[in-house]
Design brief:
The chain is of the alpha/beta class. It is 33% helix and 18% strand. It has a single domain, classed as Vaccinia Virus protein VP39 (Rossmann fold, 3-Layer(aba) Sandwich), CATH 3.40.50.150. The chain contains ten helices and eight strands.
């Protein structure tokens, strides 16, 4: 399986420090309580940056990147402007992230990733193409949502091609579980959008089930029981997603992409 932001979700390294998430797969899921480490959806791999990546990282990271921490995120101050905020979970090497940021200059986009070399590739592109509306967080996305993002503060959340953890004994590692869907919904503002894509059929069935079970969501596209033509024009973020060369390779090999788009119900 390979797709848009594959590096983020398949070969990730945890951020070192006292809040590094458990990656053994043996802990039960108890939310963010570190007395009971949460089973994360990534696995560790060491990988060094190239010299050119390191130079770009040293120059850019202090202003556009941060490690995940237990402190509220002041996005307006970080971006230097007030704009609708979109979070992308698992931005990987950032091919889609950069393209969407450039297509949506009126949005502030925060990419969350645990794999440093993937982030470094995106940092290089941000520098090279002078992309001003991307900021990056290195660490566990659930920690970000639990501890850094205020309720009802996000206009959109994107999760493109998360690791499907296909073996049954690893299913508890899948990111999109009922508790995570509820957490995402709580961070979206009323009318905000969750956009998910996967090329793994079994995971697609799982995502459909947990999404349908989240009472704060309404389906906005056909897969989720909605009508995309009806909602597309007035949705706060676009429904389009760039297709990368990796995804095209999968499509040519016969992979089927399933896209889920939900909106948070407006009271």
């Amino acid at each position: 399986m390979d797709a848009v932001n594959d590096a983020a979700n398949h070969t990730a390294e945890p951020v070192p420090g006292p809040r590094s998430a458990d990656t053994t797969g043996d802990a039960d899921h108890h939310g963010g309580n570190r007395l009971y480490p949460r089973v994360t959806s990534f696995r560790a791999r060491r990988s060094a940056l190239t010299p050119t990546q390191q130079r770009s990282w040293d120059k850019m990271w202090p202003s556009i990147g941060r490690d995940v921490a237990d402190e509220p995120l002041d996005a307006d101050a970080w971006f230097g402007r007030t704009a609708p905020l979109i979070i992308e979970i698992g931005c990987g090497t950032g091919t889609a992230t950069a393209a969407m940021a450039q297509a949506e200059p009126d949005f502030n986009l925060v990419g969350i990733e645990v794999y440093t070399p993937g982030l470094a590739q995106l940092v290089q592109r941000i520098e090279r193409e002078n992309i001003e509306n991307i900021r990056l967080l290195r660490g566990d996305a659930v920690d970000v949502l639990e501890n850094m993002v205020a309720p009802e503060s996000l206009t959109g959340v994107r999760v493109f091609f998360p690791d499907p953890w296909p073996k049954a004994r690893h299913h508890k590692r899948r990111l999109l579980q009922p508790a995570t869907m509820t957490l995402i919904a709580s961070r979206l503002r009323p009318g905000g959008v969750l956009h998910v894509a996967t090329d793994h059929a079994d995971y697609a069935e799982h995502i459909a089930e947990v999404g349908a079970g989240e009472s704060q969501f309404i389906g906005l596209n056909e897969v989720t029981g909605g009508n995309s033509d009806e909602y597309r024009e007035n949705a706060p973020i676009g429904f389009e997603r760039p297709i990368t060369k990796f995804e095209n390779k999968g499509l040519r090999a016969g992979s089927a992409i399933t896209e889920f788009i939900w909106g948070k119900i407006e009271s």
